[in-house]
């Protein structure tokens, strides 16, 4: 089956999907989105993603979206695709109107969903570790809303790719916030250290699950800010995200980090994370990865 798209009830191959040129998601980035992994033909943590979507819609006052219908459409599109290992992306815009910064009061949201075969980045290496860059965080003040306004992330991730790196860590002053598409954590003296939550950071679902796994495994978790210098001197550095899962970082801006290797906490958390996927979806561990 080809990669599939859903646009307001119409299902087509991705290349045949269309939206209005007046759609506010296209004109203003007036939209919110989610993305998750499909393992063994089943979506992982869909309920958590839908809850975050509802929060984003409420924060941007995008009304009229039927979240239950969106969930049904996601499940149907996965079934139609017959893909076992996939990425689902879904986006809700405020709707279409002639260009005007102030939205009309009666707009009907546009819902777009795609299901595509998952392809792991060649720059993501679970065994030997991955490289990243660190750049200044120039995003707007409400990045806790998962909106499609991602130009700073685009520029930073582009810069990372040009440098042969997987990700770009975003730093505000000297404080590490997160990366472009992943949460960031460090291991220090047996504890996992994670940045404080707030409007300056996205409430990461993979980070949330990682915290729960740490509680079960009796791994201490500390929530506090840490600097780029502390990150560089940490025992381990790790990224967390739906498509990334949990991955070790061994180099930042060309400087060794995490001892230059993927450490034991990162490896343990990745294994626990994949075990939790298999358990929650009722699938074989072999359908997830090594």
Describe this structure in words.
Strands 7, 8, 9, 10, 11, 12, 13, 14 and 15 form a 9-stranded mixed beta sheet that branches. The chain has a 6-stranded antiparallel beta sheet with strand order 2-1-6-5-3-4. It is an alpha+beta fold. 28% of the residues lie in helices and 28% in strands. It has 2 domains: 4-117, D-amino Acid Aminotransferase, Chain A, domain 1 (2-Layer Sandwich), CATH 3.30.470; 130-281, D-amino Acid Aminotransferase, subunit A, domain 2 (D-amino Acid Aminotransferase, Chain A, domain 2, Alpha-Beta Barrel). Helix 5 (205-216) packs across helix 7 (264-281). The longest helix has 18 residues, at 264-281. The protein is globular and about 55 Å long.
Q: Topology, pairings included?
A:
Blueprint: E1 4-7, E2 10-13, H1 24-28, E3 31-39, E4 42-43, H2 46-59, H3 67-81, E5 86-93, E6 110-117, E7 130-136, H4 151-162, E8 167-172, E9 175-179, E10 183-188, E11 191-194, H5 205-216, E12 221-223, H6 228-233, E13 236-241, E14 245-252, E15 255-256, H7 264-281
Parallel strand pairs: 7-8, 7-14, 11-12
Antiparallel strand pairs: 1-2, 1-6, 3-4, 3-5, 5-6, 8-9, 10-11, 10-13, 13-14, 14-15
Question: What are the key terms here?
Answer:
290 residues; nine-stranded mixed sheet; D-amino Acid Aminotransferase, Chain A, domain 2; six-stranded antiparallel sheet; D-amino Acid Aminotransferase, Chain A, domain 1; 28% helix; alpha+beta
């Amino acid at each position: 089956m080809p990669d599939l798209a859903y646009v307001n009830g119409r299902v087509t191959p991705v290349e045949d999907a269309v939206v209005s040129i007046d759609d506010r998601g296209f004109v203003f980035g007036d939209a919110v989105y989610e993305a998750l992994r499909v393992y063994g033909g089943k979506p992982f943590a869909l309920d958590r993603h839908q809850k975050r979507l509802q929060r984003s819609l409420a924060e941007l006052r995008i009304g009229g979206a039927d979240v239950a219908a969106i969930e049904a459409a996601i499940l149907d599109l996965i079934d139609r695709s017959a893909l076992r290992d996939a990425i689902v992306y879904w986006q809700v815009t405020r709707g279409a109107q002639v260009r005007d910064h102030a939205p009309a009061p009666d707009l009907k949201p546009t819902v777009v969903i795609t299901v595509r075969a998952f392809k792991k980045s060649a720059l993501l290496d679970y065994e030997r570790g991955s490289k990243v860059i660190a750049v200044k965080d120039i995003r707007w003040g409400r990045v806790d809303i998962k909106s499609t306004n991602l130009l700073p992330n685009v520029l930073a991730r582009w810069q990372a790719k040009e440098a042969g790196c997987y990700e770009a860590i975003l730093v505000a002053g000297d404080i590490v916030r997160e990366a472009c598409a992943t949460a960031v954590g460090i291991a220090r003296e047996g504890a996992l250290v994670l940045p404080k939550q707030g409007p300056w950071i996205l409430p990461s679902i993979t980070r949330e699950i990682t915290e729960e796994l740490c509680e079960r495994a009796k791994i201490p978790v500390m929530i506090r800010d840490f600097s780029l210098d502390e990150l560089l001197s940490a025992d381990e550095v790790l990224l967390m995200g739906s498509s990334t899962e949990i991955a070790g970082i061994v180099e930042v801006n060309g400087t060794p980090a995490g001892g230059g290797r993927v450490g034991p906490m990162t490896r343990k958390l990745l294994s626990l994370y994949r075990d939790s996927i298999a358990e929650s979806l009722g699938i074989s561990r072999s359908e997830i990865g090594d």
